[in-house]
Design brief:
Strand order of the largest sheet of chain A: 1-3-2
Helix content of chain B: over 70%
Largest interface: A-B, 31 and 28 residues
Structural class of chain B: mainly alpha
Distance between the termini of chain A: 23 Å
Oligomer: heterodimer
Order of helices and strands of chain B: HHHHEHHH
Number of helices of chain B: 7
Shape of chain A: elongated
Order of helices and strands of chain A: HEHHEEHEE
Distance between the termini of chain B: 73 Å
Largest sheet of chain A: 3 strands, antiparallel
Number of strands of chain A: 5
Radius of gyration of chain A: 17 Å
Radius of gyration of chain B: 31 Å
Shape of chain B: elongated
Chain lengths: 111, 171
């Protein structure tokens, strides 16, 4: 259980969902179009992935107007923020070269 | 007509089997437990996350301009208030402050991204700016100094926004 892979969030394992979450962790809220351009995906892909993140309780979608134009705002919930932080910490450990020993224990790999 | 019906039935059957065949290929792939990323993949994901974070930070820089505009507006209002008679000065300050604050708020709502903690920080700045300007107007009317004291006092009303700007620039 000590291996960082156990702390990887299955919801954030998808690269697109991970990118969306990372974009939102640095923001209070962001416009749908801004996230779409930052993550470099189409409207439909972003819509599908935000639905999944919303279903996991990680993301909140707010609809409103700026003037007469309809806008969709995306923001992370506190659970989503915590999940991204955990996931990033696990990735940091994996990137630092934590590998499994033959006994199944996490050990820093020799460099 | 019969030929057409037969043809459409055949197309439907082919389509059904094709869909089943696609499901046979796709479903096991979806069901697979995600593999543990290698060190290189994890490093790549982190690099991407830093890149995205940089983009969000860059696009959130509008808030610095917002704070500078707020500071300038408050300083200008304080200067104008100190030059006018009490009643007129107060009216001008109240109307101008509402217009400036609402204008800045409308501009902030048009921005595509707000940096983390923006709502809480901006609420604090808003309150501090309001009370510093109100304090200035009351002090100016009480002492009726009219002299150059406002030159020293006016920058103080801009202080909350300037402090917030400094913190934003450092973050």
């Amino acid at each position: 259980v000590s291996h960082p892979r156990h702390r990887l969030d299955p919801v954030l394992h998808s690269p697109v969902r991970f990118s969306i979450a990372v974009a939102l962790v640095a923001a209070d809220r962001a416009e749908f179009a801004f996230v779409r351009d930052t993550v470099e995906v189409s409207d439909s892909v972003l819509s599908r992935q935000t639905t999944k993140l919303e279903a996991a309780g990680y993301l909140k979608v707010t609809k409103g107007y700026v003037g007469k134009r309809p806008r969709t705002w995306l923001s992370l919930t506190p659970e989503g923020r915590a999940a991204v932080t955990r996931h990033l910490a696990a990735l940091e450990q994996l990137a630092a070269g934590v590998e499994l020993s033959p006994e199944g224990r996490a050990t820093p790999s020799a460099r | 007509m019969l030929t057409g019906l037969c043809l459409s039935l055949r197309v439907e059957t082919v389509d059904k089997y094709l869909t089943d065949w696609k499901l046979l290929v796709i479903l096991p792939a979806m069901d697979k437990t995600p593999e543990t990323p290698t060190s290189a993949q994890a490093a790549e994901a982190l690099r991407r996350s830093r890149q995205i974070d940089g983009t969000v930070r860059t696009r959130s820089r509008w808030y610095r301009r917002y704070l500078l505009a707020y500071a300038a507006a408050n300083t200008l209002l304080a200067a104008v208030a100190s030059q006018l008679a009490w009643g007129v000065g107060l009216l001008v300050v109240v109307v101008s402050y509402v217009v400036a604050a609402e204008g800045l708020l409308a501009w902030s709502r048009r921005q595509p991204v707000n940096r983390a903690g923006f709502t809480r920080r901006n609420k604090l700045v808003d309150r501090a700016m309001y009370w510093s300007l109100a304090g200035f107007v009351v002090a100016d009317s009480t002492w009726q100094s009219g002299s150059a004291w406002w030159v020293l006092a006016a920058p103080i009303v801009a202080l909350p926004a300037l402090v917030a700007y400094w913190r934003e620039a450092r973050a």
